[in-house]
Here is the input.
Amino acid sequence: MAPKHEEVVLGVSIPTQGIVLAAGLGSRMAPITDYTPKPLIPFFTVEMLELAVAQLHRAGVQRVAINAKHLASKVQDFVDQRLRSAFPNIEFFVSVEDEVLGTGGAVSRLRPWLKPGPFWMVNSDAVFAQPLIEMADEHVRRGNDATLMVTRAQEHLELRFLRASEDGLLIERTPGAEDTGFAFCGVHINESGLLDYLPRTGESCVLRAGHLPWVASGGRVRLFETTLFWADAGTPERYLEAHKRALPDIESWLPCKGD
Here is the structure.
């Protein structure tokens, strides 16, 4: 049972809906992904898609949309045969894309599904130990328009493209990684105003087409730094390295099936 929290502070609420991005071709993980969608590759004992849903469930999410394209029927089958029974309190919807839409296009396609209010977005290959309810509480407390999970862990030095103010507000995405920058973890909360900046059709990037124009017009897009384990498990090298880094503390956060 997910914990209950105060849901409205400063006009901003704890998100109870979320989107898991699972439509990537996973070409860097071939030949495994020739037959298995990348989101269904297990991290230790839990498929990465289920791990993302479990993290959202622990944060009180009640509605989850999952976008799919590559081997979409297998993603749909996993949702129907596994996730619906493992998480009976969550309403699931699978958005099958006919073309590559990117992170921004995936959200735009889900406009009819989204209810008014904030929503999570989680990359299915982002594996992390950070309790999401802590990030949601911070989003509410600070009255943010959007909150992006970031890390400055040394192993992600080459991914530090985000620059922020002293107060943690996003300023820009730099052309190259910077020692003082932050690495975006592919996990974020957005108020519905994000949709005003994203193109309604076609492929787009949620950061470049959504968050950065929002910042330019005065939006409060704030960074939430996690100091816990995070990994982008999207390549064989990163996937194996993530297991090695996670192993010493894995029992403290990896959920059991259906947790």
Observations:
- The domain at 15-252 is CATH 3.90.550.10 (Spore Coat Polysaccharide Biosynthesis Protein SpsA; Chain A).
- DSSP finds six helices and 15 strands in the chain.
- Confidence is low (pLDDT under 50) at residues 1-10.
- The CA atoms of residues 44 and 247 lie 9 Å apart.
